[in-house]
Amino acid sequence: MGARIPAEGVPGVDAVERAERVGELWPRFGRGSLRDMTGSEVQSVTATEALARLRQGNARFVDESPQRVAIGGERLRRDLLAGQAPFAVILGCSDSRVPAEIVFDQSLGDLFVIRVAGNIVAPSQVGSIEFAADRFGTPLVVVLGHTGCGAVSATIEELERPSGGGSPNLGSIVARIRPTVESLRETELVEDPARLAAAAVRANVRASADHLRHGSALLEELVEAGRLRVVGAEYCLESGVVDFFDGV
Ligand SMILES: [Zn+2]
Question: What separation in Å is there between the alpha carbon of 92 and the centre of ligand 1?
Fold first, then answer.
């Protein structure tokens, strides 16, 4: 329980205020939340603050001046044995070029990350996010797509030249992206493959974010209560920049 810092002598101070005071004494790790004197997790970061932290981390990554990814080691691991309180959930693509902790320059215990090809939303992804939001009070969910996404391209190809008979497991991913691509193919974008692919990545992020906002009673309740925000973003493979473009 190395993370515990005594909070005696502050009667009448509520748990969040107490955690903030503790946070002032514990700036080294800059954690999103802390434990109160009873050992319960206290999330002291708002969605706006969490978003700002991600933007700052991505700016450090782009500037090639990372600070957080280098933080680790025995002391932090020991502190985190007491529990985790990640300040953001990232639902990203499995693409090896888009590791969430690195592109946002965050450390152990900072992010609750779910990665799946095409950053699709299926029941296990919803369940994972419900777990983090409910258990840790994590206030922000980011659906993180990226330029040049192979899962989105594969879906476009499948619609143009249906192969049929492929792996049903891979087919289940394509099936999640398919409705989004189908509606874009009904527009003039169908004449321009590069623009279609770029628009499909963003539309797929929006579809996943909407699914999370409305596809779970628990998450919808938290969103309506102002305790959870779901935003969509796109990572640019070329520049390294994350553009938050949906729900911000
Ligand atoms: Zn991808």
Answer: 8
